[in-house]
Amino acid sequence: MQQITVGERPLSVAEVVAVARAGASIVVSEGALERVARGRARIEHLADDPEPHYGISTGFGALATTFIATDRRRQLQASLIRSHAAGTGPEVEPEVVRALMLLRLQTLASGHTGVRPVVVETYAAVLNAGIVPVVREYGSLGCSGDLAPLSHVALATLGEGEVRDATGELVDAAAALAAVGIAPLVLEEKEGLALINGTDGMLGMLCLALHDLEALLSTADLAAAMSVESQLGTDAVFAADLMALRPQVGQAESAANLRALLEGSDIMASHRDAAVCTRVQDAYSLRCSPQVHGAARDTLAHAATIASCELAAVVDNPVLTGDGRVESNGNFHGAPVAYVLDFLAIAVADVASISERRTDRALDRARSHGLPPFLADEVGVDSGLMIAQYAAAGIVSELKRLAVPASVDSIPSSAMQEDHVSMGWAAARKLRRAVDGLARVLAVELVTSARALDLRAPLAPAPGTGAGHALVRSVVAGPGPDRFLSPDIEAVTALVLAGAFAALVSADIRTISEENR
């Protein structure tokens, strides 16, 4: 099992995904624990100060002017967590909860939050034990951090609330901790606030989306290549010198993938002669695939830059500075993350939209250049893939709605103390749904283009697109009379989400093709 060290350097997206999805174990570095202990000593000194210090000897938010006596501060911290664990709705996915918990642990291990080492060690132990606190869908405004989601996690470390144990069973938090020998936390000054003041939920979902979209955009290139080839399009428009006339990085990368995937195609060779093919140029959904896919790649690169900065950040309020000051700040505001989450949702919607248009062209006998209507076996008796396109169109319509930005909205809260919020959590939640939708739209295109390639026989596809065709055929039967179609789409979607098609693009596609023939 992979082991991730926390506290030595910023985490990477890959490490977040490894802990969130693959159950990678966590070790907190000795240096981090030493920093945490030094930071805690400073907080304990301020706790004895008769002057009030926010989050240490005062209330929170709009109640920041209320001084809290020493003998009430444990109650203050516990009350903060209980009252802020106010989420509602369905449970959030375990991978999201693990990601946000890891990211909060990384900040705690920085030594800038003022918690005790035992708090850091407890968070690591809960993650390593496979315990997943129950976090609810709604409750975060993405400012002052993802307060409600992080409070549900913190509540579980106190031995309160519900969790999923390592087997996935819903159990009481106290029982789950006892079963693995973890003592519940009793929070001291500042610790409750330190556990919930961060952008960890939205950042965790951004990291997961970055990982997924990198694979989905490669899959989109493969699906586009199969569509271009099966619809007798041309690869001449993807030439490197044409791409160089518009030096967009993502566009060049996508076009290079298309050229490689289409190289050596008998189908394309069959209509290169102008006497055979009289079309001057292909429709935009074929010809402009690298422009759209490339723009999405560039958006992904920008989002990755923002994620990298945030992964290196210490997000807490107040925060303990390097010279020992405890200062209020606004670094918990989720705007940087929220913006790119919304930006990615726009790119996802557009990549899905052009994919659906390629699918639709393959099914229309007026535009498919010789293919039967809806790729049906017996036209009239069979409907072929008609309704598969309906499914894709329905998803694309929803993706357009999900592309409406969440980050342009703000609802004041906490008696107008928190009068501008990011809505980053909402942006992240809708992006997760959008990523899943894109995978399904691409699966429909792959099913469609694979059948279209079959119907071009005896002409053979290129080695690269042939590998994609063979992968579809590993779970879906070839052309024939109508059959129950939903399982076919689900099977290909599972391969898309697993990154199987993306792996063909990054691997030696010629070798893979030869092995699959």
Automatic annotation (TrEMBL):
Gene Ontology molecular functions: histidine ammonia-lyase activity
Gene3D superfamilies attached to this UniProt entry: Fumarase/aspartase (Central domain) (1.20.200.10), Fumarase/aspartase (N-terminal domain) (1.10.275.10)
Localization, UniProt: Cytoplasm
Reactions the enzyme catalyzes: L-histidine = trans-urocanate + NH4(+)
UniProt similarity note: Belongs to the PAL/histidase family.
Chief localization: cytoplasm
Organism: Microbacterium telephonicum
InterPro entries membership: Aromatic_Lyase, Fumarase/histidase_N, HutH, L-Aspartase-like, Phe/His_NH3-lyase_AS
Recorded superkingdom: Bacteria
UniProt enzyme class: lyase
Protein name: Histidine ammonia-lyase
Catalytic activity, EC: 4.3.1.3
Keywords: Histidine metabolism, Lyase
Any one Pfam family match given in the protein's UniProt record, by short name: Lyase_aromatic
Biological processes per GO annotation: L-histidine catabolic process to glutamate and formamide; L-histidine catabolic process to glutamate and formate
